[in-house]
Specification:
By secondary structure, the protein is of the alpha+beta class. The chain has a single domain, classed as HIT-like (HIT family, subunit A). Strands 3-4-6-5-10-11-9-8-7 form a 9-stranded antiparallel sheet, with helices on both faces. Strand 7 and strand 8 form a beta hairpin. Helix 1 packs across helix 4.
């Protein structure tokens, strides 16, 4: 295969694919492997049950999931005055929001991949009730649920947790995707899911409710897109079974990721949902690892100045994730 560009119809951006370059020697930075946390309770962890956090608040003795307002919230719910208008080249807008932290488990030493199916289902239920609570606020237009996992992604605490930022404006990624859903007569993800289900070469795993695949236009080496099989907009429109299926596919994906390089796999993942008819629920997994537990993909140079580039083809990445036998 020769070098070519691939088009991302969700963002209308291109990615450069240069197959065959992935075997080149690497003498750059090597990441250190972070071992999984050893104890199920860490007295120094601000997320463990019963411990106190910055600012003095204390976590309850929770046994499932636990949600609290971020003590260092990037956004406040109160309306601010905003910046004064000076010049059209110095534009700003006030932004309001609510930032929360979601502990996935009382166990300090677990990751999603090592939790039980019931426990992961509990996380999905918590996300659903948080989504419903937050989107009901009069100023909230977007609810970003996400997980940033692993030191490589800048996450300092191994305790399994994620965050939710609910904002008064649509963030950049949402704006791009909304345009893709709105400016098309048929739903882009309904059509794409059907196409990939027929072709099969980029599918990683699937269940009744969801399809997990390395998208044709993937930027990150082992990027995964999770698509709901039904045209559902958000967690609120899920049926009982779909909640369980989302938990199931998340478990399957993270177990495969961990097995790939024999290391707790770092990633950023998040749900993209919006209560609109022209929106199709999906989730993105963006993991940085490239060819081992210690060699990551850097988005620098050409990527920062021109466009993203990848060496490993999405088809090869999908085949490797599909064929790997999850450890658990
Ligand atoms: P990350 O490690 O994924 O960044 O998430 C930890 C979040 O927890 C982070 O956003 C918050 C930080 O602001 N935090 C608290 O709310 N209270 C604390 O006592 C420490 C950290
Ligand atoms: Zn902990």
């Amino acid at each position: 295969m020769s070098s070519h560009r691939r088009f991302n119809p969700l963002t209308r951006e291109w990615v450069l694919v240069s197959p065959g370059r992935d075997q080149r020697p690497w003498s750059g930075q090597v990441e250190k492997i972070t071992a999984a946390a050893a104890q199920s309770y860490d007295p120094a962890c601000y997320l463990c049950p019963g411990n106190s956090r910055a600012g003095g608040a204390r976590n309850s003795a929770y046994t499932g999931t636990f949600v609290f307002d971020n003590d260092f919230a990037a956004l406040r719910p109160e309306a601010g005055a905003g910046e004064p208008f000076e010049h059209e080249l110095l534009q700003s807008q006030p932004e309001r929001g609510i930032c929360r932290v979601v502990c996935f488990s009382p166990r300090h030493d677990l990751t999603i991949s090592r939790m039980s199916a019931d426990a992961v289902r509990g996380v999905v239920d918590t996300w659903a009730s948080q989504y419903t609570d937050l989107r009901a606020r009069d100023f909230v237009r977007w609810v970003q649920i996400f997980e940033n996992r692993g030191e490589m992604m800048g996450c300092s605490n191994p305790h399994p947790h994620g965050q939710i930022w609910a904002t008064s404006e649509l963030p950049n990624e949402a704006v791009k995707e909304l345009a893709a859903f709105e400016n098309r007569s048929t739903c882009v993800l309904c059509e794409y899911a059907a196409l990939e289900a027929r072709r099969r070469e980029r599918i990683v795993c699937e269940n009744t409710g969801f399809l997990a695949l390395v998208p044709y236009w993937a930027v990150w080496p082992f990027e995964i897109l999770v698509i709901a099989r039904r045209h559902v907009a958000d967690l609120e429109s899920f049926g009982e079974n779909e909640r369980g299926d989302l938990a199931g596919i998340m478990l399957e994906i993270t177990r495969r990721y961990d097995a790939l390089f024999g290391t707790p796999f770092p990633y950023t993942m998040g749900l993209h949902q919006l209560a609109r008819t022209k929106w199709h629920f999906h989730a993105h997994y963006y993991p940085p690892l490239l060819r081992s537990a210690t060699v990551r993909k850097f988005m620098v140079g050409y990527e920062m100045l021109a466009m993203p580039q990848r060496d490993l083809t999405p088809e090869t990445a999908a085949a490797r994730l599909r064929e790997i036998k999850p450890a658990i």
